[in-house]
Amino acid sequence: MPENRKTGHIIMFAVTLIFGINIPLSKSLLPLWISPEGLTLSRILFGAAIFWIASIFIPHEKVTLKEHRFFFIGALVGVVFNQGLFITGLNMTSPIDASIIITCGPLFAMIFAAILLKEPISLLKVTGVLVGASGAILLVFNGHQATTSHTSNLTGNLMVFGSAVIYAFYLVFTKPLTLRYSPITLMKWMFLYASILVTPFFYRHILSAPVYVHPEKIAVLQMVYTLCFATFLAYLLIPMAQRRIRPTTISMYNNFQPLIASIVAVSVGMDHFSVIKGLSAILIFSGVYLVTRSKARPENEKGVLDEWEKAT
Predict the structure, then answer these.
(1) What pLDDT digit, counting tens, does each position of 102-151 carry?
(2) Residue 119: phi, psi to the nearest 5?
(3) How far is CA 301 from CA 103, 179, 289, in A?
(4) In angstroms, how far is the first alpha carbon of the chain from the final one?
(5) 228 with 66: CB under 8 angstroms?
């Protein structure tokens, strides 16, 4: 595997680890300490502020007027709708259901990549997507059978599903932008546009949030993790991975989230290792390997940008 692609996989594993830890942390904040709307706006405003501050320390990159519309669309789907739907859906349903539903992401990423970037849908790639999803679902269902509490909600599940589909589209749609601009330039504009879109509707949820009005140490630490790691660091790293590996492969890393949660639980003594967990891990890693090894159109910057220009 080329060094560039290895780096992409390392980056995405780090992002998946960050998001995997953030799911239970966000769930514990909602809605006692902050509403879904308040958490969404907090992340967006923090992202806008920190990325604009960071942009001071890098060379200025001029964005064409034409491409500002793509930044706006990226902000709408990748920040506003993706974060808003997922956080609201997670508040209404269980982390178990959410973990199962997000396994559909790679399927949609594969379809969107075929439409926008003319990526071929090979049998090996489809097999990898299905194998990886089956490993994640097997792990989650095994965990569901081992627990006595489960709160499911159809509306919440549909919101998480919508978030997974939108995130898959975002990965494909913004890949060409990652070839033209630095991650900080990308994110400073996307989070700025997202702030303009969301603030007028959600600002009241921040003003009345207990985590800000009557803060306690544990809630503050959870918010710091969500803002600094699951927002700034994760959104900084994702474009770096998009430059190096394909959207379907990136989306496959969603399947690692329940595996990471399980590993963390075993390491702290909250769970134990089982044959099912081992089998699930093998299936998930195998799925990512098959997608990585599947036949794909030779990728170069000009080719990706040309296909994107035609599609958009």
Answers:
(1) 777 888 888 888 888 888 888 888 888 888 788 777 766 665 554 444 45
(2) -75, 130
(3) 29, 7, 24
(4) 31
(5) no
